[in-house]
Amino acid sequence: MHFIKAKICYNLIRLGKIKGEITPKRYVVEGKDVIIEDENHLFEYFKYFSILSIIIFAMIVNPLLNPIEILMNYIYLVYN
Fold this sequence. Notes:
mainly alpha; elongated
């Protein structure tokens, strides 16, 4: 809303319909420290792969840990 009002006033001042002064736009620039870390993502991928492998292995060994099987058993018990 404020932007539209400012735009209308700018146009009226530019056309000479009202008196006023056009000031340049103000841009606020905040200095942010940018840190670029050059890391090898192989360790991150290995970590996620290891966690996923452990979870899958646990679900294969003990099917009671599998949330999909728990849900399917619940649906079977409710609707049977």
